[in-house]
Amino acid sequence: MRLHYPGGRDTVFDVTVRGRTHEVVGARGLPAPAYVYANDEDHAYALVLPDARSLAWLIDHVPEVAALFPRTMLWGTLWDAVREGALDPARYAALALHAIPKEADEELTGTLVQRTVTAIDRYLPHEDDAVRAGAEAVLLAGAADSARSYGQRKVQLDAVIDLARTPSAMRQLDAWLDSTTVRGLPLRAPTRWAIVTQLLARGAATAEQRLAAEVVRDSTSEGKRLAYVAAATRPDAAHKRALFTAWFADTTLNEQWVTSALRAFHDAEQSELTRAYLVASLDSLPWIQQNRRIFFLGAWLGAVMGGQRDAEALATVDRWLAAHPRLAIDLRRKVLQARDELERTVRVRRGRGRPAQ
User: Fold this and answer.
1) What does the domain layout of the chain look like in residue ranges?
2) How far apart (Å, rounded) are the C-alpha atoms in residues 62 and 42?
């Protein structure tokens, strides 16, 4: 148990367990600390949420924690607070975006960037353009900062592409395809395909033209796979239907291509299109278990559930589970595992706006 006192040294105590009570005997008589962290040095495999006083301090001061390991752990605690509904994801995104330009560690920078993208894309309404535009500006500046490592810059560029929704951001992505570099970073094939995929997903006017040009530009086997992935994200009902049918009927399809395309097909902003495949996707589980490789099932369920955000989809999954009481126990557990993330998303989005507890 770590107790932190501003201006002084942290104090670490053992915790004495007395039945159901956990007592920090050595802390008796000490003033209230700025924060208490129960899983000091990460010894316990447990979800450790901060009390209200500790959470309030961490929100204001976590980037100032000098040592990398405790700073990483405490950022993880704030993320757990988001996922448990105790911290507004918009507040977390603002905190992380303030800290990212100053964070020296490459791995922690990547974690903060990825969680910020999740907070904005998964837990906030897609119409929240102010938060998204602010994130785009900070991350683009980070991608252009030559004082940062390549890894820190690249993860921020990737996040800019992932988050792009505003008209100016989409125009910027389109223009980048006419260049060989972006903010001093080389624009290689995987990044170019990520841009093309985003343009297609958002229905950009130039999307089909850009896809055709990239197919000519990159005729490698990897390029063909990425073109298939990009096409899967078209917001077109007839195209979605043809793809879904082919996944079961076309025995010549490369399974790796299908696996790669699942997330693109189930783009969360196209949930009105893909919800039509929610029950069909669950009905197909026994066939998938028999006919696909072992890891395909998890990717299938993760994409299906990950492409939904609202309570209606969650209710559909629950009705399906109730209607299939004899579903094989291993399949039921996999569905429940994927359902957990959907249920968490619904809960976090519903609880937005509450003050940090």
Assistant:
1) 88-186, 188-244, 266-349
2) 17
Asked if 334 and 311 count as a contact pair (C-beta separation under 8 A), the reply is no
- Amino acid at the residue 31: P
CA distance 77 to 129: 27
Q: Is 10 helix (H, G, I), strand (E, B) or coil?
A: coil
Q: How many whole angstroms separate alpha carbon 348 and alpha carbon 124?
A: 9
For residue 170, give the nearest of 180, 160, 179, 178 by alpha carbon: 160
Distances, alpha carbon 65 to alpha carbons 2, 89, 309, in Å = 13, 21, 34
| Interatomic CA distance for residues 139 and 163, integer angstroms | 10
| pTM exceeds cut of 0.85 | yes
> Which among 199, 254, 250 is positioned nearest to 228, based on CA atoms?
254
Phi, psi of 187 (to 5 degrees): -95, 90
Q: Which residue has the tokens 């922690």?
A: 108
Which pair of structure tokens corresponds to residue 25?
A: 């005997």
The continuous run of DSSP H or E covering 35 comes out as strand 35-37
What single-letter DSSP state applies at residue 16? E
**In one letter, which amino acid is 253?**
L
Task: Encode the chain (357 residues) as per-residue pLDDT tens digits.
Answer: 566 666 656 666 555 555 555 666 566 666 777 777 777 666 667 777 888 888 998 999 999 988 899 899 999 999 999 999 999 999 999 999 999 999 999 999 999 999 999 999 999 976 567 888 899 999 999 999 999 999 999 999 999 999 999 888 999 999 999 999 999 999 999 999 999 999 999 999 999 999 999 999 999 999 999 999 999 999 999 999 999 999 999 999 999 999 999 999 999 999 999 999 999 999 999 999 999 999 999 999 999 999 999 999 999 999 999 999 999 999 999 999 999 999 999 999 998 644 443
Distances in Å between the Cα of 309 and the Cα atoms of 222, 266, 317 are 31, 11, 12
> SS3 for 264?
helix
